[in-house]
Design a protein that fits this description.
The chain is of the alpha+beta class and 398 residues long. Helix 8 runs antiparallel to helix 10. The protein is elongated. This is Protein kinase domain-containing protein.
Length: 398
Amino acid sequence: FSLSRFSLLSEHCVQAIRSTALVQMSHNASRNLDEENNAMRATVARLTEANRQCEEENRKLRDQLASQANNAPGLSSLQLPSINNAQLADYTSKFAKEFTVTDIMGVGGGGCVFKAVNKHDEWEYAVKRIVVDPRDVRDGKLHKILREVRAMAKLDHQHIIRYNSTWIEEPPEGFQLYADDETLKRINSKKMQLKNYNPQSLFIHIQMQLCNYSLTDWLNDNKTPDTRKPIRMKMWFKQMVSGVEYIHDNKLIHRDLKPCNILFTTKDHLKICDLGIAVEQKVEKVGEVEVEVTMTRTGTSTEEYMSPEQSSLRMFNESRLTTASDVFTLGLILAELYVVMDDYAKKVKIFDNYRRGKPDNIFDEKQTTTAQFIEKLTKLNRKERLTCKTMHGEIFMS
């Protein structure tokens, strides 16, 4: 009996110990959970404070940059204006909505050219963006610029890059600077001159056919005489003349013909592009003679391929040019097609001598016809030069 009672008491003791242990374990687990929660709350608090400090540092940095921009001489036009959410919500950019920029093909004083994919048809296009300064809008020059763009948009020729569409965007002040900054970051580009414009500017967009290979590229890739096959070079030149003649027939002057503005759509098919500085012709009397001159506008053509009158008139900030200036440049390009000019200094000397009316003897005896033809295109007196129409009667063009 005593042994049974002892066994029963022992069993009760074991159960009591187990219960006590379970209670203790529960308390420990609860305490551990509380400690973990406290640690988590402390971590969140630290992260929140760190984020607040980071935002404060960013705010101070923005204020500092804005202050530097305001105080720096000549940088007032680069000050980043504020732009609020209401402005963002109210404005939609057609370009941003319909295109995805994949590259920046070129940036110049008058704007830039994007390589962009149309989100609707998924084709790649070149989109040229022309910056219109607020002063030009106030002075009424916007109407003239638009008239020129519309005139160029009407050009439809097999050897001229066709405009697909044209539109104007007038974003709220500062919108475009922020949008361009995001574009540069996304495509990892360092072309900061993309943002070199007045924040209040308007932007004309021109969507056109994309060509990734230019005559400049071809010249750089083919620097041996055996690559300059006369038959092929003449075929290319005839295409250029055809395109320029069409431009002239439509009362326009290109003014900036050069190899990088002559593009390949296929292996042997060329198209002229970058008509952004082309200008309308008009006729006025100089003495008793009627001559065609451009509408007054400062010259923006490339000096290397300028006609002598372009170089001369540029000194006086004038732009009284005729179609003969384009013809002179065609002569320089033809010379570069036939003769390898891999030394830049040599090329400049050759072109300068053409502008002086004293061409170098760069052609061999078999190319006498070519040399004589180029001399007719590059006459110092522009009235003596051939026109695109009269070129067709020359032996070289047969």
